[in-house]
Design brief:
Number of strands: 6
Number of helices: 9
Strand order of the largest sheet: 1-2
Strand content: 5-15%
Largest sheet: 2 strands, antiparallel
Length: 296
Amino acid sequence: MRAKKNEWLTHEYFRTYRIANAVDTIMRDPFSHLRHLEGLTVNDGIYDFLPHWQKDSALHKFIRYVADEILMNDTDGPTRVPFGPDPVHPDWILPVDAAMLQYGIIDEPLFFIPDEPAPGGTPGSASDASEPNGPYHVVNACYDYLLNLRWTQVYEDLMSRITDEVFYVMFLNRRALANLNQFLSGYVEEVTSDGFNADEASLADLFVRDGELKRVRPTMWARRAVFYRDRGRCTSCGTDLSGLIDTLSVGNYDHMVPLARGGLNDVTNLQLLCENCNSKKSDNIEDPSNRYRRWY
């Protein structure tokens, strides 16, 4: 993930809530979507989530994966967006190009959806992808375009912008974050040191034992993000912590999914708890509070 240029985010809200809703829906019942999540978890995909306190958090990775799937699904139809000065007979582009235009990543569409093929052709024939009259010509052309686009810098830039925007909206949702981390914890618990090859040997140093990551002090940026997200209050009982303790005291940053239960050292796995509530929770997995203070 490219480094942030500064602390400010220009929010265009292009499909932000649609993607956020898809992410939340999957998080609520991930096991019903396992087939769609294989790309994140199979072939040791969980290894990307293991390093401590990545700014490219578990939620960033999940959002990027879901957003990419949504854009790929747009080609199966395809989903069309009008483009051009003629409202009656516009050119048609894919949502991915519309997004890149809105974010200022490109100045002109990179691809126009071809006209529908004339009747004829045999479904499934070898000529479908190349012959203009093939019944799957449009879908195949759209799919091939996006498949190739995914290897380009402009697509990487788009994914970065979309991911940042959806993360901004979703980071407040502690229940969704806990659901994500609980899903990932099942894969972390299955990680064993003898499963690493020579190139992955350094990953073994992240663990205190098989299936349990070491406890590592949260970084300053992670503590600040969680403190301000939770308004300096215990998310369980509401105790104001801002004037009672060091606002960045490590002891009040609770892993929603405990490390002993496969939890990650990840900013999305933290919540602010007072000492009493933290002690009561211990190493249990509990639903985080869904109570939030009003803006005004």
